[in-house]
Fold:
Amino acid sequence: MFNPERIRALFDRASDSDSERWRSVRPNMDKGRCTDCGACIEACPMATIAADGAVIRIHYEGCIGCGICAVNCRIHAITMEPSPDWRH
Amino acid sequence: MSYIDVLKQTQNVMTPGSSACQGCGGELILRRVMQIAGNNSVFAVPPGCMAGAGVDGWNFSNGCTAPIHITLLDNTASFMSGVSEMYQRKGRPDVNIVAIAGDGATADCGFQSLSGAAERGTKMLYVCYDNEGYMNTGYQRSSTTSLGSSTSTTPAGAAINGKEQQQKYVPLIMAMHNIEYCATASPSNMADLVAKIQKGLDASKRGFAYLHVFSPCPTGWKFAPDQSIAVARKAVAANLCPIWECEKGVFKLTPNRKPITIAEFVQGIGKFKKLTEEEIAAIQSLVDERWALLEKLAAE
Structure:
């Protein structure tokens, strides 16, 4: 039977499980070494790495911690670190 | 403008984030095609990973910002034929008509509608991301699955040792339809992929364009998610995914400067773990023959 409260509860539960909670690691970009070459932008399947003008930044909202950016960074400026929001 | 500048400056059609698996090659290809096509486009994605996870967005907080149709598994090309015809009649040939389908919806279920649309010369771009199986439902074999791959319908065990047949090579079949533009690409060579998407979109204004993109799947193939691009790079080096294009019957093959063997390619990929020496030799002979054929076609 249609129960608006139950459906609302399902929505609330869904919105409580965003990617920041379930990724165990996340990339950390060392801007001291980064040359803004764009190799991470072309490799990121989630499009969470974007150019902010000439500077490349990681936006963590959609990142699921796959590590492709770290592997494809030619100068090893990206390292994977434990995600502080990870909920086991 | 270099391809990196294109990627830096072009708005994404799909907003960041999705519920696809970590390291998904299909997701990367989908986003790249959509980004280059832009918002003045109509997309179609048949059931598969990219319909289930890619374009739906994640958690109601993101999604696709251009019109998109989730078609049936077998009617993507015929569906988009109608959409294309409607836009031509309305006097809107500027709209990009783009279908993005997996190998199951391209090589198996959707092949008759794809072949029909190609033969009619429908003005559209059809992109196939080939992850060698039906990944959305748990990796069942498809006709593009490589010999010896352990899938959920051909598990390597006592009775059989993975898939017993060689893969079907769809891009050459499509090139033989005499279409406007046909090409293969790999996410490991992004400059080439971006250029081919642009060429394909351009050709879709004149006739049918087909793009076959190799798409590694960490979940189905069983390798580490961060190695996706590396696996695609190895597949190109091993000639499993030769990079070529065919414009109106004129073939252009990208040379393979540092070739590796199939035995080197299968290292570290779980689905090939139980490959026998004979199977490796059979795949090697298939890719060698395919390369020789492509060289002959490109030489003419």
The beta strands of chain B are 41-44, 68-69, 96-102, 124-130, 181-185, 208-214, 244-247, 250-253.
